[in-house]
Every structure is written in C-alpha cells, then in structure tokens.
Amino acid sequence: MSKLDSKIPAGDISQKWSNHKAHLNLVAPNNRDRIEVIVVGTGLAGGSAAATLAELGYKVKAFCYQDSPRRAHSIAAQGGINAAKNYKGDNDSVYRLFYDTIKGGDYRAREANVHRLAEESANIIDQCVAQGVPFARDYGGYLDNRSFGGVQVSRTFYAKGQTGQQLLLGAYSAMNHQIGLGRIQMYNRHEMLDLVIVDGKARGIIARNLVTGEIERHSAHAVVIASGGYGNVYFLSTNAMGSNATAAWKIHKKGAFFANPCYVQIHPTCIPVHGANQSKLTLMSESLRNSGRIWVPKRIEDAIAIREGKKKATDIAEEDRDYYLERRYPAFGNLVPRDVASRAAKERCDAGFGIENNDTKEGVFLDFSTEIKKKGREVAYANGNHNPTDEEVTKLGKQWIEDKYGNLFQMYQKITDDNPYETPMKIYPAVHYTMGGIWVDYNLMSTIPGCYVLGEANFSDHGANRLGASALMQGLADGYFVLPYTIADYLSADIRTGKIPTDSPEFDQAEKAVKDQINSFINNKGNRSVDSFHKALGHIMWNKVGMARNAQGLSEAIQEIAELREEFHKNVFIPGTADELNPELEKALRVADFMELGQLMAMDALQRNESCGGHFREEYQTEEGEALRDDENFTFVGAWEYQGEDINREIMHKEELKYEFIELKARSYK
C-alpha cells in the first residue's frame, strides 16, 4: 500500500473544494485561543497565513530570518498576480486558468489542487484591494490586466513593476495589526534548525537567534512551513542570497517526503552573468515580454561583431534579426511559457548566435523599439495628433513604456549602465523558481501529522513548470483561503490538549542534535570558505542538473556532489563563535542542506526518463527539439523518503496523477 494519501475529494472538479470545506471539522471561536500555531517564513504564504490564523483567534508564533517580514523574497516577484476575473472580456474563466496552469506545468500537476487555486484567484484580488494594494487601473478606473507567458488572455493584475512588494506590504500590515493585538508573537532574525515531533505529531521547532546565537525551544499544536524554494542550490540564481532550503530539508529529514526535486524553473529574462566573482543574478520581470521582442542576429558574423564591440544592436537591420520565438511559436510568440523560452535562448546561443561578451558568450536581446513606435503613434492619435513626426512618436512611446515599466528600466540601467529606452536589454535564462518541494495532501499537510507546508516550499500546484504570475497567486491562496480551513480540521482534536511542554525528551534530543552540528562546524580545522564550496556545488548543478540534463551528466553529478559534501565537512572553515552574530555559520548550515538536496535533485532527474517542463532530458526530445513526455510511465509525482545520511538510500514513492477533467496531450504553443 502506498504511504501517500492525497485526500483528494470525490465528485466533479468544480464542486470538490466547496464540498470538502462543508465537511471539515471546525474549532469554535471561544476555543481558538487555546491553540498555538508556529509559522516559519513570513513571505506571502507565511505572512498571509499568520495574519489570517491570528485574526481567527489562534495564538501564532511567526519566525523569519530577516530583520523584518518586509524583507521576504516575495517582494522580488515584480510582474503580477493571476486571477480569472475576465475584466478584459477576452473569454477568461476559472476553467481556462485551471487548464492553462495544468498545460503550462506540462501535465505533471494535481488537477484538484490547481482547480482550487483557479477558484480562489478572484477572492485574492478582492482581499488585496480591500487591504489597499495599489493595483494599476485603466482609464475608466477599473483594475487593469496584462498578459503573461503561456496564455492567450490578459489576466495578470499588477502594480507597476513592484507587485510582490505591494502584496507583501498588504499581508505585512495585516500581520502588524495582529501583532499589535498580541495574537502574533513575532520572532525576527530567528532561523528554524529542526522540527520537534512528539507522539508522531509536529509539536514545535528548535530555532537559533541569529543575533545572539542562542538556541531556543518553541512549542505549538501545529507547525506551518512557508520558507520558499531551493533555487540557491545553484549558487547563482535570482533568489535573494539568504534564501535557503533549511526549514524544508529539516522536516524532510524528520519524515516529510520531498516531491519532484528535479523540477526547477529557469527564467528566460535575467541579466546575463558578467564574471566569475558574481554572487547573485537579477531578474527582469516577465511582464517585459508583453512589450519587448526577443532576437539574435540572423548572421553569425553579426553576433561575433556585437560580442567583440565592433557593432551595436541598433546597427543590425530589421531584416537581419532573428525573432526566434515568433518564428518558432507563432501562436504565442514572445509569450511562450518560461521553460520553452529559456530552451530556445540556449539553443540559439549554443549555435553561436549569443550576443554577450562573457565567458560563455550567452545572451540575447529584449528589444522595445517596436512597442515604443506602436504606442507612441497610439498616444499621439489619442491626443489628436494624427500625423506625428518620428521624434514625437519616439518621445510619446518612451513615456508610455516608462509609465508601465519605469522602475524595471531604471534598475536595468543602474546595473548595466545601458539605457534600455535606446538600446535593447541583454538577457539570458537563470535559475529562478522551484516547482518541487515538500509533498502535501489536498489539505496542505505533509506526511508528518500537524506539519503543513505552503507556497513555494510545497510541490502542489505547478507541475513541471510554473506559469508567470502564479507564484503570488499560490502563496496568497494557500495562506488566506486554504490553510485556515484545512488546519482547523486537524486542530479540532487539540482544544483540550493544553500547552505543549518544551522540557520533554523530544525537545532535548532535537536541541542536542542542532548544537552538535553547530559545534562540529565551529571546531572544524579546515581552510576553505563556505562560499568556495557553495560555488563548486552550483557549478556541478548548473552544468549537469541545469537547463538540459542527460544520464551520464546526472550520474556524474550524484558522485561529484557526494565527494564535495565529504570534502566540505572535512575542510570548511568557520571563523568566530556559535554564541554571536555569525553569518558564515548561518551559511555553512544552509550549504550543508543544499549539498544533500542537490544530490537528491540529480537522483530524481536521473530516474525521470522523459522531458517535461523545466526537466529537459537530452535523450528525450522531438525532432524539433521540444520536450518529449512519456505519459505511460511517468504520469506521477515522485516523493522521496529520507533514509539516513547516505542520500543514495532515499526511497521514492509514487503518487499517480489521474487526469479526469483535462485530456493529456503534447503541449503546443505553435
């Protein structure tokens, strides 16, 4: 019998969630303050969950490693949030959002969860407007929408190029209200380092105060993990440098299965790598693909001349430009899904047409000149000028672009010293979001009773590739509209339990394990920095578990990471002590987890003998170079069970994916 019970309700897809909610157990309002919930992570998923649970009357302890929840990496999701409101009248619907998300994820997501996400999407927008989130509005005052990759409708709500930040401020203000009422205890600059299980249930955490180094015990009746994704396994990614996988990996080692770790999203529009000493990459929002056209020169000699500085992008005539996404995918053009756009850019650069003068000659152009002319003429016409000069068109077009994307253009210019109004942006794919994560059932509970996982930290909604503007949607749906209902069903059995004591053998054992690991790092007599090991891991991951994978490279990666991990524990050097602010110690603890997770990612990619979404195996592709799925053998979620320090011993369990409401077929964006 499988150890995985997804608890998907019976019945028609459109009724599953409402029927399920109607039959969940409740905790009465007068009993809620008897129950404590720990929330780890205060980005959109954790912040919205903490605020909502506290507003319902539960006692909440919220933990973040930053100095404030406002620093959560959710702010970096610039482009927008999806919702099926059909404001543009272009025939959007809950079903179409559900279908686009399943298709975008290459038919490797769970139908019931995705439909629930689509249903709740409209509620999120209403909630955020009520909080005062300043969404963009059209001329008539209605909320505006724009398009994103992988869809043929406009359903993305946005606040200029800072949507994630504005949504996070909404959740943060809701949290602050509850902190002011004493319902949320906020623990800033604290990092969860282990989960405590008592009688088979998640009952607390061990946390380190990052300022003093003190190890603390915190108990609760349930633990919610909302700590984000694991993109920083690759060292270079669009994630904030502090983003890490420790909370998720610690619960994995305590019994939470880790699902689909090989599903990593490579985002097509990042500023290319400049040099070997770089430690972070910058994402240019996918919203720019609404207005920008992606191209490389048609002639290889032009690409070489651009790389060598002998020609500029503006020197290449229109007929000598290869708008390769428009050529290959005419129905969607520049708005194909991220995995498709990323592989297409890699294909052109591998063929020698890259335009960036870096070590790998990798980069393509994102050009706004066509949109500047088009919008400039439209604005001039609307202003009554039906015969504008070229100068007037350009000026008005640039103003339109600035109103729409101004802060993104400013950010690009500050980083590159190029003016994107005058010359095309240079972009190239980079590691961004992780679709894999902790396996959860329909109620968002992991395989550990009482341990729930939300947002990017779980695996549930995006299959093998996430559509743009869906991360914010999932985080807020989980936190505002799913977990508060489903966790009550579990907590209803705890109204007489009383406070969970922290002086139990289980807390003793967990605290000792944390202190032992910290002491082993502090007392290590090595001579290499943490970053040198992290970079070495990232190099293996990007080259062998990156945009394209093959059996030989993955087998090598598994072995190389195991050797690197051994060397890391022998030879890493941590300055300072354990009982102080010690960023190198923080990094060492996180990199130790990345090493183990990186090996599991390669193992998961090796067993999946197909290409789907963000997982592209070179052995499995069509004649046109598109991903070739194997639905007969791989229509399942691979959920891995920890079996001790040797990651090679992990056991994979399968959750078969049943498609009852959508037909399984090859993706086409042509």
Question: What does it look like?
Answer:
It is a single chain. With 670 residues, the chain is an alpha+beta fold. It is built from 17 helices and 19 strands. The chain has helices at 16-22, 44-56, 94-104, 111-131, 163-180, 246-253, 300-307, 324-328, 338-350, 369-382, 390-416, 471-491, 505-522, 530-544, 551-571, 583-607, 631-634, and strands spanning 36-40, 59-63, 81-82, 156-157, 184-187, 190-198, 201-209, 215-219, 222-225, 258-259, 264-270, 293-297, 321-322, 364-367, 425-434, 437-438, 451-453, 636-641, 651-656. A 5-stranded parallel β-sheet has the order 5-2-1-9-17, with helices on both faces. Helix 2 packs parallel to helix 5, helix 4 (111-131) crosses helix 12 and helix 14 (530-544) packs parallel to helix 16 (583-607). The longest helix is centred in the middle third of the chain and has 27 residues, at 390-416. It is globular and about 80 Å long. The model has no long low-confidence stretch (mean pLDDT 97).
